[in-house]
Amino acid sequence: MSLASEGTDFHRPLAAGGLAEPSLATVGDYIALMKPRVMSLVVFTALVGLAVAPGSLHPITAFTALLCIAVGAGAAGALNMWYDADVDAAMTRTSRRPVPMGRVRPGEALAFGLTLAGFAVATLGLLVNWPAAALLAFTIFFYIVIYTVWLKRSTPQNIVIGGAAGAFPPMIGWAAVTGSLSFEPILLFLIIFFWTPPHFWALALYRADDYARAGIPMLPVVSGDSSTRRQILLYTIVLVPLGIAPWLIGYTGALYGVTAGVAGAIMLGLGWQVFRERPPAERASRNLFAFSILYLFLLFAVLLAERGWGGLIVRLTS
Amino acid sequence: MGRADRPFDIVSIGALMSDQRDDDGIVLTEAQKRARRSRSIAIALALAALVILFYVMTLVKGPGVLIRPI
After folding, report:
1. Is A175 helix (H, G, I), strand (E, B) or coil?
2. Which of A37, A52, A281, A316 is the most buried (most CB within 10 A)?
3. Which run of H or E residues covers position A122?
């Protein structure tokens, strides 16, 4: 149950006559509700899934698919901000979001998120295909119900399992083209899935106080610093071979293999530094967090260049 | 006719739909009016984009969209 319903009041004050004060929310506040930075990563990974998939898709249909995936991600972001308003208010990083700032009421964020989710799923189903729409609906459900409502406040494994929600977009992109799934999109899913824990736990290491204050049982808060550093290294050791796997199975060319190998070696090196580092030092954690973003971007960008770009150009011109 | 028998109170609805209420109601400030106007324009643009998207996608799909099992 959200703490928001247990005393923390994010509603605007009542105006004369007992009616809620009219909203001052701007279009920018509603865009902020959609977490545009997260949305851009979702769109990028979905684009890669869409571009590397076999088969053809009209460019306008491809655009529609990406638009629906983007809006679906935005819906998930809005619903997350609705439920997590109390947590967001308690954390420095998120305290200036529209709901804890009182610019958007929780009910408005909920209505906005549900409306966007409904439109995104229905439009993807009607204009592209229903398997992709079903995956998008499941992703939104997973992010909100499984991660936000259930796992986030109840287990230190929250971002491990919840990370699946962020790993689905390439599969949705693939399904938008093929109407089905196969081994390749599942491999892309696994790369993001195993990338998520080192990425978020590196952040949590130097934001542990923030998470503790908000009552979120992140691994550093519950299991301590040393355990988190060991888990980061273990997940990085699993992640690096997975990152190279597309080249190992012959799905990509040498450029991808070299990129995944070099970037993976840097990830391992940074993971080792995090493992060796002791608080209050946090430089290695910050370095790993920053590089992990570049790592995922590099892998998918090279995959797009090698496998997808040619196919995408053919689709755009056919 | 009693109040309970009138599902729609035209006077109340009219008052709610206007910017000003004549009793202790709300009077929008200029900032609130600007914010509401920008939200209204954004909703209108989004709906127009949705209509255009469905229209263009219907053209992309071609006559095939009409061939469906009943």
Report:
1. helix
2. A52
3. helix A106-127
ipTM for the predicted complex = 0.80
In chain B, what are the helix, strand and coil shares in percent, each to the nearest 5? 70, 5, 30
- Identity of the highest mean pLDDT range in A124-128, A204-208, A276-280, B14-18: A124-128
Cβ-defined contact of B36 to A58 (cutoff 8 Å): no
Q: pTM of the prediction?
A: 0.85
Residue A35 has pLDDT above 50, yes or no: yes
Distance to chain A for B58, nearest Cα, Å: 8
Residue B20's beta-bridge partner residues?
Answer: B27
Confidence of residue B1 (pLDDT cuts 50, 70, 90): very low
Judge whether A144 and A83 are in contact, CB under 8 Å: yes
Dump pLDDT digits (tens) for B38-55. Answer: 999 999 999 999 999 999
pLDDT in tens, A266-299: 999 999 999 998 877 789 999 999 999 999 999 9
pLDDT in tens, A56-67: 889 999 999 999
Length of chain A: 318
Rounded to whole angstroms, what are the CA distances from A219 to A102, A160, A239? 30, 10, 19
Round to whole Å and give the CA distance between A148 and A61.
31
Cβ distance of A27 and B38 shorter than 8 Å:
yes
pLDDT of the residue at A254 = 92
As a whole number of Å, the CA-based R_g of chain B is 22
Q: Roughly how many angstroms between the first and final C-alpha of chain B, as a whole number?
A: 48
Chains A, B: CB contacts within 8 A come to 48
Cis peptide before A280 (omega within 30 of 0): yes
* A318 Cβ under 8 Å from any chain B Cβ: no
Assess contact for A179 and A217: CB atoms under 8 A: no
Do residues A23 and B38 touch, judged by C-beta distance below 8 A? no
DSSP for A200-221, please give it. Answer: HHHHHHHSHHHHHHHT---HHH
The minimal CB distance from A127 to the residues B32, B35, B57 is found for B57
Task: Return d(Cα B27, Cα B24) in angstroms, integer.
Answer: 9
CB atoms within 10 A of CB A240: 21
B35 touches chain A (CB under 8 A): yes
